[in-house]
Design goal:
By secondary structure, this protein is an alpha/beta fold. The chain has nine helices and eight strands. Bound molecules: nickel (II) ion.
Length: 255
């Protein structure tokens, strides 16, 4: 059974068939889903989806791409939402220097630090988004040595992967590892122990080959599982089971 540790089913892309898609997952081999929020409203929606579906859990947080108007009240709202029984992490939080119209770097770092502090206070893992901000993201998480979690859709170097693994972090792998230009992914996966790998769709985005460009859904993770299994020399069934157990351990969902 598959554990999709990162999917945005609150996205407008699922407006027409959200409940249908989510309800069909267990019978299609998807045991668990974590739906991270990107701002207060989508975090609320993530919690609502988790209330409606037993196999869905929520993470709550403010995404670096959505943090430009973040206020003290927003952080307080995230703190309140985090108390919900089906909230398993603070996320998705981090730094995104790719989009030029995102908030200034210093402001992103401030919002990131506040949410790492919240995770530390509430003893929750974090889901970290790091796009074109590897050095600063690593430096900021090192300021919080008691906070652990996952680097979502990991895009750093094998050296950075090794450093995070030593510190106790998990690495998330998504559809792009199936793309032809994914040159660095095999090297990163090679240095990542089996017990630190989790799989993510980032649905509706990052759809794996051969469906690249179409809407992503948790069932399509089988293509990511196949690629990881091939690189790690295990069977796809073993890789599914290993990543399921890793996700359970990461988010405190052990049987
Ligand atoms: Ni995401």
């Amino acid at each position: 059974m598959i554990f999709d540790t990162h999917a945005h089913y609150d996205s407008g892309s699922f407006h027409a068939d959200r409940d249908e898609v989510l309800s069909s997952l267990p019978a299609a081999g998807v045991a668990l889903v974590v739906n991270p929020g990107c701002d207060v409203e989508s975090s609320r929606q993530a919690v609502a989806l988790a209330e409606q579906h037993p196999h869905v859990y929520a993470a709550v947080g403010i995404h670096p791409g959505d943090c430009d108007d973040c206020t003290e009240e927003d952080i307080a709202a995230i703190r309140t939402l985090a108390a919900h029984a089906k909230v398993v992490a603070i996320g998705e939080i981090g730094l995104d220097y790719y989009w030029k119209d995102n908030a200034p770097k210093e402001f992103q770092q401030d919002i990131f630090r506040r949410q790492l502090a919240l995770a530390e206070e509430l003893d929750l893992p974090v889901i970290v988004h790091d796009r074109e901000a590897h050095g600063d993201t690593l430096a900021v998480v090192k300021e919080f040595p008691h906070v652990r979690g996952v680097f979502h859709c990991f895009s750093g170097s094998p050296e950075m992967a090794e450093e995070l693994i030593k510190m106790g972090w998990y690495l998330g792998f998504d559809g792009p590892i199936t793309y032809k230009n994914a040159r660095r992914s095999p090297e990163v996966v090679a240095v990542t122990p089996l017990d630190r790998i989790v799989i993510e769709t980032d649905a509706p985005y990052l759809t794996p080959e051969p469906f690249r460009g179409k809407r992503n859904e948790s069932t399509k993770l089988s293509y990511v599982v196949e690629k990881l299994a091939e690189w790690k020399g295990v069977s796809p069934a073993e890789m599914e089971e290993i990543t399921l157990q890793n996700g359970r351990r990461l988010f405190g969902l052990e049987d």
